[in-house]
Amino acid sequence: MRMSFITGLLAALMIVLIAAGALLGTIYDMASDQTLYAAQSRAAVAKEFGFADDAQVTAYIGLTEADQESVATDIALYMAFASEDQTLDLPVLSERERQHMQDVRGLIRLAQNGYRLCIPLAAGLAVIIAWTGAQLRRRHRAVLAGAACGAGALILGALGLMLALKFAGFERLFVGMHRLLFTNDLWLLNPETDILIRMMPETLFEHALGALLLQAAKVFGVALVMLTAVYAAISGIIRRNVSERKEA
């Protein structure tokens, strides 16, 4: 019974780690996507303010499409590769904006490191589960029960997010997230003077959240299939070895 409980607990933890890794990896990928700061940005500005043509978007943001493409490339590269103390050297940004982007890059770096940690840990757990489960008479029952508990926790989390979005609204959650993640008020930008907030209106982040969750779910599914295959292969090998030893 004890080994069955441990196996189930590890299976639940593996599911949560896969989900965390998928989410963090997707956050890093999206933050490093040049189109987020260019094409997606301009589409979001047009939608939020009801602009009918690109000239109006250019007038509002203060950048032509070509200029914004160049700025977007620099931002994406910065998010992907910048060192801890490196600032985003863009003439169109104020000092306050540069400092805020440095704070954002710090969060993206944490997401990148979290992804690199969660997925290998989940893979390690798949191996451990195969070993502990192989000692059980009904090894798959404990694994499936634990995985179901882990999946249940994820579903509850998703439902909680949906309810929060429904009753609190995206704007309140967006502001609350900034207050939680940042230790300063540099994220409070002025659309009259700061180009970042004109490039990235609330509509952009709202759409990005939906795309983020969808892509993370896809990554989660792929990773789960791969680690399930790892578990099945190693579990089979261990069971065969145990059987051979008993027969010998």
Strands, count = 0
Shape: elongated
Strand content: under 5%
| Poorly predicted sequence stretches spanning 5 or more consecutive residues | none
Average of per-residue pLDDT values? 92
* Total helical elements: 9
**Biggest sheet character:** none
Given helix and strand content, the structural type is mainly alpha
Percentage of residues in helical conformation: over 70%
Q: Tell me the span between the first and last alpha carbons.
A: 28 Å
Order of helices and strands: HHHHHHHHH
Radius of gyration, in angstroms, nearest whole number: 23 Å
Q: Could you walk me through the main structural features you see in this protein, from its secondary elements to its overall organization?
A:
The protein is mostly helical. 80% of the residues lie in helices and 0% in strands. The protein is built from 9 helices and no strands.
Mind sketching the topology for me?
Layout: H1 2-31, H2 39-49, H3 54-61, H4 65-81, H5 95-134, H6 139-167, H7 170-181, H8 195-199, H9 202-247
Quick overview of this protein structure:
The protein has helices at 2-31, 39-49, 54-61, 65-81, 95-134, 139-167, 170-181, 195-199, 202-247. The chain is mainly alpha-helical and 248 residues long.
List keywords for this structure.
single chain; 248 residues; mainly alpha; 80% helix; 0% strand
